[in-house]
Write a sequence for this structure.
């Protein structure tokens, strides 16, 4: 591989890098990575440190992580409205969880950088024509033509730009009064008038009363007015992630400045692979997705590589096993890690092990199955005496019809009404809130 300069975090180049785009124009790629290296950081080292400290609290049971957003962000949908609705959904879920669980909720968006996707198949075939798979807007275009599917390195600069403008908006919304809890409580208007939500109405009314009480009492402190919303994405495209890695001026350590929290996907979590090697070098809090095929030894090797000294908050395992497997597989893994003693923050991704295809060809998930996996996650932790530290979900603030079920009983026939995702099906706004209520109950009962 050609590199103009050597960086201390370049050792990933000697390892096997799965799921990388094959760029036809290497010179252009080098122009792009060199340009990225001179751009300002998107997030700051001190912010990543704060999140690491908070993730450590979640591992101890003193906080709970809510991580959510699109499966794949797209350039086209990086608009003020879509970002606002997504943030609003996350904040509303967080209010429900904060109240229901009486715990600080650590809010992390799958946002401002989630533009690249790993794919199970290299090629997509339609009507006998095979083209390279869509790998996210950071790599190629979704439309089904030969030109559109050629990986273009200039898209990495677009990804930077879209991430920067998203973060700018997120900072304005969360620090500028929009996220004020006295406004966020307006969420439950449409919610409580829906008869299907009767089960949650009591909790919703309690929350409303509590917020109104604070308002009436003149409560006015920063915790009401501003929130921290961190950004996260899958650190998939190594050229981008390496180009966004910087030396921290405070102490000479390395930080990936493309997002606060970076995770490694199920397909790229080989402990000896390039993805683990790159994230091993940075100080950010990092995660790895864990499917039902993982063994206890796999996890210990990941801990050896990513968090050898057991620094609290540094390493998160995001389990995505499938509702049918989690009760069988997870307890043994929890035991292994517990015996090791080094802290891990455990988060449940109840989406990726539960994807199904309908007879009409839609990729969907069933809300009940998703909730079943979350419940299995809590049961496994209860059984072993470990801590369920958070939730990782694919959601949107829009009224899409991508996941079936939920109290509106969205059925298969309705998927075609508003199916907008380019990759995986997302919870819509109502399903997201419903999940928050259900998870709040699970935390309360734990
Ligand atoms: C994802 O989070 O969209 C994803 C592809 O997850 P996983 O790596 O768990 O399959
Ligand atoms: Co996904």
């Amino acid at each position: 591989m050609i590199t103009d300069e050597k960086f201390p975090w370049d050792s990933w180049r000697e390892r096997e890098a799965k799921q990388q785009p094959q760029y036809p124009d290497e010179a252009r790629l080098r122009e792009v990575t060199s340009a990225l290296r001179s751009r300002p950081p998107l997030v700051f080292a001190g912010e990543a440190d704060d999140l690491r400290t908070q993730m450590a609290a979640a591992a101890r049971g003193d906080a709970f992580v809510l991580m959510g957003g699109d499966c794949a962000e797209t350039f086209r949908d990086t608009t003020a409205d879509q970002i606002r609705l997504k943030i609003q959904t996350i904040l509303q879920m967080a209010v429900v969880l904060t109240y229901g669980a009486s715990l600080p909720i650590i809010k992390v968006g799958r946002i401002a950088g989630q533009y690249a996707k790993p794919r199970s198949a290299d090629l997509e075939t339609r009507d006998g024509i095979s083209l390279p798979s869509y790998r996210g807007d950071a790599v190629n275009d979704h439309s089904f033509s030969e030109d559109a599917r050629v990986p273009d390195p200039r898209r990495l600069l677009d990804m930077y730009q879209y991430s920067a403008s998203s973060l700018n908006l997120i900072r304005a919304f969360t620090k500028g009064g929009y996220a004020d809890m006295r406004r966020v409580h307006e969420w439950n208007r449409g919610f409580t008038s829906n008869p299907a939500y009767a089960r949650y109405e009591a909790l919703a009314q309690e929350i409303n009363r509590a917020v109104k009480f604070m308002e009436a009492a003149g409560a006015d402190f920063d915790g009401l007015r501003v929130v921290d919303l961190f950004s996260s994405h899958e650190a998939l495209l190594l050229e981008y992630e390496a180009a966004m890695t910087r030396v921290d001026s405070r102490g000479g350590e390395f930080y990936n400045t493309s997002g606060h929290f970076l995770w490694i996907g199920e397909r790229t979590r080989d402990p000896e692979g390039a993805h683990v090697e790159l994230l091993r070098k940075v100080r950010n809090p990092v995660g790895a997705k864990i499917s039902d095929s993982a063994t206890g030894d796999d996890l210990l090797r990941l801990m050896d590589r990513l968090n050898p000294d057991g620094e609290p908050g540094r390493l998160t395992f995001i389990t995505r096993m499938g509702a049918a497997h989690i009760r069988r597989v997870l307890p043994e893994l929890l035991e292994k890690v517990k015996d090791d003693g080094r802290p891990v923050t455990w988060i449940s991704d109840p989406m990726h092990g539960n994807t199904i295809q309908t007879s009409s060809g839609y990729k969907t998930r069933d809300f009940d199955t998703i909730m079943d996996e979350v419940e299995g996650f809590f049961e496994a932790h209860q059984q072993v005496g470990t801590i369920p530290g958070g939730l990782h979900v694919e959601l949107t603030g829009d009224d899409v019809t991508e996941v079936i079920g939920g109290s509106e009983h969205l059925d298969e026939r309705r998927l075609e009404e508003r199916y907008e995702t380019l990759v995986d099906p997302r919870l819509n706004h109502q399903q997201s809130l419903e999940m928050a209520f259900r998870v709040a109950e699970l935390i309360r009962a734990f």
